[in-house]
Every structure is written in C-alpha cells, then in structure tokens.
Amino acid sequence: MRIEPGEIEAAIRALPGIDAAVVMLRADATGTRRLVGYVVASAGAERDSGPLRSALGRSLPPHLVPAALVWLDALPMTPNGKIDRKALPEPRTEQTSGAGERVPATSFERELADLWEGCCSAPYQGWRPTSSTWAATPWHC
Q1: Which residues lie closer than 8 Å to 3 by C-beta, 6 or more apart?
Q2: Whether residues 39 and 71 fall in one domain
Q3: Residue 23: its pLDDT value, please?
Q4: Does 50 share its domain with 29?
C-alpha cells in the first residue's frame, strides 16, 4: 500500500486551529516504523491529539492516521527556508500511542503492561478506551 505524506499533511492543515503540519515515517527504538505527524496549532487553539485523530479518522483511512502526533510551536527551517526534517524531534513515549490510546499511568497499569509483554512476547502498545472500560491493545499478540 502506498502512503503519501503530502495527502496526510493536507488533511491535517485543513482542520480548524492548525497552522502547519509535516508527516514522516520514523522508526522507534524497536525499529518499528510509524507515521509521525508534527503539528503547529494556531494561536489560542487547543493542542489536543484526541480530537485531531478523530477528525483525521473521518477523512483518512485508518492506516494513514499518524500513530504519533507531536505539537510544536513552529516547524524547524533550514537557512534556505525549507522545513528541516532532520531537526524534527523524536516523539516521546506518551505521544506514540495509537489512536485514542494512552501509556500506563499507575503502578497497577504498569504491572498489567509488563504481564501483557511477558505473555505475548511482544512490546506493549498502550491502553485504549472502549465504551466504559479500558482494554489492552492486541497489536502484536
């Protein structure tokens, strides 16, 4: 399947409250490649990834919604005025959870994540809300 970052960038920029966006494929510490969206919010706009992901999910297929969204004050630029993609920061752990997911916040949740990794022999991928409960995301099991 072909992924066009420009299409994803255009979808992000078309949303209200967004001034600029860059999307690129990045490998995390385990070598897993994910789409990362770098977003610059308009002045006074809320920097909330949840509604942004929801809006993107209505206009893009699921595989085109970035796995990580990184909010920036401004995009780094080269002396020639182009976006300096090499200067874009690595997403932090809490930014890399998939759509609507979050990292463990308590020691109990961390123990569950460790159990998940042990049982599945695979990296834990996050928590996601499901109606009124929380469920582990079975990406690799």
Answers
A1: 25, 35, 63, 64
A2: yes
A3: 96
A4: yes
